[in-house]
Design goal:
This protein is of the alpha+beta class. The chain has ten helices and 32 strands. The strands form eight sheets. A four-stranded antiparallel beta sheet has the order 1-32-31-30, with no helix packed on it.
Length: 497
């Protein structure tokens, strides 16, 4: 092996003498030497050589050298892309960039602990502590990629409810619940896509349902509600009192509120199976309601929206303004939004009882809405969806693409899933308003001549599952359930960094 030649004795002596000087003298000598070099023949080459020789001595891995607390503080200012770039620098940087403390804010911003982690627990059998915040975020990104890019998962289609109309769909922690005009509800396993149980008991069609924990409540055209246990599948209570079809129901903990075509709302304790009160005041059918455990907001065919205090059964406000039936409601904090057959959406301050904004743009009935974090998504019979800022009343995006009435919508994180009479399910970016892709087209290939085309009546989405109720146009006695599972296989795990 070649060795560098030993320095000449006079150089060694000069180095030894330089090393014996005081630091101030060393600095002064170096400054004089650097100033002198350009004056000599070939001096610039010597300056370049000096720069090359000293470059690696000036490099310092500050992340490796700093205490971990300071290194984490510095990296905490990076976004996800920046953290991934930092992790590629070295093994030491990668170890710091993978710290839970850095990934927790991203998980909290996307509510990953509430959405993705329960899926990993129930469907992958992972226990708390066995996966980090970074791994949870990686699963979130994998799911996003599964929804937005690459091959679509296979579609499982089952003939549900013996060809009757599926009137409601609900994804719960125990599986998918479907309700039908065949007087039953069915519980489906989201892993095997097979039926677990059929709930019998109603003597009329099931029109609505809601769930909390282990309990499911359903409302029917038989004027009753029933409380079911989702684990042992028994009917715990039959709730009577309404004198017409139960059109809508909401559940918060053990308290349910139902709205009926008899123009009343009723408040129920579902564990005791008792009616806690009757809310009267509407003059026509109650079409929609929302309940957050504290306040009830209802919309009616009498053109009004009412705000109630359920513990006292007192009407706090009656909100006038719509000039036709109210078909849809959303409620968040002190703001409620109502959609009407008068083609408008109204934004209300339910504390003050005043209309904050009148939203124009849709050309037909607004029967579908979702309100989350101050952003309202509305679906309309005019084939469009719109995204609104409820604080300003401004329309942020108008989503064009469906060729027939929008029949249902679901918002999951930053994505909107919509379905339509045109037989398609489409995915949109909530923040940008951009069309992402068609998730399903039930009329591709087109139906045979003389056969009605398929329409999608209901859609429900979770972070990993898409569930659709599909039927034939103008044929109310033919329906099926279509399920798509977007959870990537365990072997598809990614390292985001």
């Amino acid at each position: 092996m070649d060795h560098e030649p030993a320095p000449a004795p006079k150089i060694s002596a000069w180095i030894a003498e330089f090393a014996s000087w005081e630091p101030d003298d060393q600095n002064a000598a170096l400054n004089l030497l650097v100033d002198e070099l350009p004056k000599r023949t070939g001096g610039f080459e010597l300056v370049s050589a000096l720069r090359r020789a000293t470059r690696h001595h000036l490099r310092r891995d500050f992340i490796r050298l700093l205490p971990e607390e300071l290194a984490l503080k510095i990296l905490s200012y990076l976004d996800v892309s920046g953290l991934c770039a930092a992790a590629a620098v070295s093994r030491e940087w990668r170890a710091v960039a993978s710290h839970n403390q850095l990934w927790r804010p991203f998980c909290e911003a996307e509510r990953i602990k509430e959405t993705i982690v329960p899926i990993l627990r129930s469907r992958r059998g992972l226990r708390d502590g066995l996966f980090s915040d970074k791994q949870a975020y990686e699963q979130y990104r994998l799911l996003q990629r599964s929804w937005c890019k690459g091959p679509l998962p296979p579609r499982k289609e089952v003939q549900a409810h013996a060809g009757h109309v599926i009137t409601c769909l609900l994804i719960t922690s125990h599986g998918l619940v479907s309700g039908s005009d065949d007087k039953t509800l069915r519980l489906w396993d989201l892993d095997t896509k097979s039926e677990i149980f059929t709930f019998h008991g109603h003597s009329g069609g099931v029109w609505c349902c809601a769930a909390s924990g282990d309990r499911l409540i359903s409302g029917s055209t038989d004027h009753t509600l029933r409380v079911w246990h989702l684990v042992d599948h028994r009917c715990e209570h039959m709730l009577t009192g309404h004198t017409s079809t139960v059109r809508c129901v909401r559940l918060a903990g053990d308290i349910a509120v139902s709205g009926s075509r008899d123009a009343t709302l009723r408040v129920w304790d579902i564990r005791a199976g008792t009616c806690l009160g009757v809310l009267t005041g509407h003059q026509e059918s109650v079409r929609c309601l929302e309940y957050d455990g504290r306040i009830v907001v209802s919309g009616s065919y009498d053109f009004t929206v009412r705000v109630w205090e359920p513990t006292t059964c007192r009407a706090i406000h009656t909100l006038h303004g719509h000039t036709n039936r109210v078909y849809s409601l959303q409620f968040e904090g002190s703001v409620a939004c109502s959609g009407s057959l008068d083609m408008t959406i109204r934004v209300w301050d339910i504390n003050m009882g005043v209309c904050l904004h009148l939203l124009h743009g849709h050309q037909s009935l607004t029967g579908l809405m979702n309100l989350s974090n101050g952003v309202l998504v509305s679906g309309n019979s005019d084939t469009t969806l719109r995204v609104w800022d409820v604080a300003t009343g401004r329309c942020l995006h108008t989503l064009h693409g469906h060729t027939s009435a929008v029949t249902c919508l679901s918002v999951n994180g930053q994505y909107i899933t919509s379905c339509s009479d045109d037989g398609t399910v489409r995915l949109w970016n909530l923040r940008t308003g951009q069309f992402v892709r068609t998730i399903a087209d039930f009329n591709d290939p087109p139906p045979a001549a003389g056969t009605d085309h398929l329409v999608v009546w209901r859609v429900q989405c979770s972070a990993d599952i898409l569930a659709c109720a599909v039927g034939r146009h103008n044929n109310n006695h033919s329906s099926m359930l279509a399920l798509m599972d977007f959870l990537p296989a365990p072997e598809d795990a990614m390292d985001i960094t």
